[in-house]
Amino acid sequence: MEITLNRESKERRIGILFIRLFIPLLLLFTVLSVGLWKYSYIFGRSNETEKDVPVLKVGERNETSLLKPLPIPQPSIKKIVVPVAPKSAGTSTAGWWKYPNVIKETTRSGDDLLVLVNKEYRLPSTYVPAGLVYANTSGIRVTTKASYMLRSIVIEDLRELNNDAKKAGLNLSVISGYRSYAAQSGTYNYWVNYNGGNYDVVDQISARPGHSQHQLGTAMDFSSSEIGDRLGSEFTDTKAGKWLAANAWKYGFVISYPKGWEAVTGYTYESWHYRYIGRENAKEMVESGIILEDYLKNK
């Protein structure tokens, strides 16, 4: 019995000694293994070249890309250029519609195709143009039973203009022609009453007696069946209005009050109002690139 106990005691001491030696060796082995792994990882990474580093495509993300965000594209900014209107054009000049303090008589006879009639120069109250005839003798439609009158020098070119307009599928009409000094006075006073006595408004759209081109017998207002032969800005965008703007000069007719030149003419844009100055003069004016007002001032 005593021998058995001594044997068990000896085996217990051997087991305890084994455990005391094994555990430290195991811990030492573990520490050395971890150290060697870290060493090989670090020095192995340092030997990588740039071509070994993966390149991200647009939209790809990984842990490395999260540390350094991709740049955000900035919107391109385009410089906006605002065109500047010529100083001689438009309505930027204060009081562009006003009459000057000194009014002069026209320097030429009213029968002269190139006489300047505007807010500075006026026709005599007694002036009546020579050779007035009915406008419908040209074959163009008119909008009153009595027709309108124009100078006979206008008729042949107006006939050719109207015939070519018909060939283009247009149906032009003349809705105003010659007006006497007295008739223009009535027209002007009508607009004064219509606008409640506001002369600043009226002087932009209607001429005072003696200052109207209609007294010459060579100015007329056009319209067409497209708009029921009405007078107004709606004529601008009609086929007839566009055709006249492009072709009227070929027959001796030019627009008197063009768009963008209100400060020079003293009147608002009138796409329907044309004046006859003859084919050669109209051609010269168009080729020179100036408006009627400036063309007549230089003659």
Automatic annotation (TrEMBL):
<keyword id="KW-0378">Hydrolase</keyword>
<dbReference type="Pfam" id="PF02557">
    <property type="entry name" value="VanY"/>
</dbReference>
<keyword id="KW-0121">Carboxypeptidase</keyword>
<dbReference type="InterPro" id="IPR009045">
    <property type="entry name" value="Zn_M74/Hedgehog-like"/>
</dbReference>
<dbReference type="GO" id="GO:0004180">
    <property type="term" value="F:carboxypeptidase activity"/>
</dbReference>
<dbReference type="GO" id="GO:0006508">
    <property type="term" value="P:proteolysis"/>
</dbReference>
<feature type="domain" description="D-alanyl-D-alanine carboxypeptidase-like core">
    <location>
        <begin position="150"/>
        <end position="278"/>
    </location>
</feature>
<protein>
    <submittedName>
        <fullName>Serine-type D-Ala-D-Ala carboxypeptidase</fullName>
    </submittedName>
</protein>
<keyword id="KW-0645">Protease</keyword>
<feature type="transmembrane region" description="Helical">
    <location>
        <begin position="17"/>
        <end position="37"/>
    </location>
</feature>
<keyword id="KW-0812">Transmembrane</keyword>
<keyword id="KW-1133">Transmembrane helix</keyword>
<dbReference type="InterPro" id="IPR003709">
    <property type="entry name" value="VanY-like_core_dom"/>
</dbReference>
<dbReference type="InterPro" id="IPR058193">
    <property type="entry name" value="VanY/YodJ_core_dom"/>
</dbReference>
<keyword id="KW-0472">Membrane</keyword>
<dbReference type="InterPro" id="IPR052179">
    <property type="entry name" value="DD-CPase-like"/>
</dbReference>
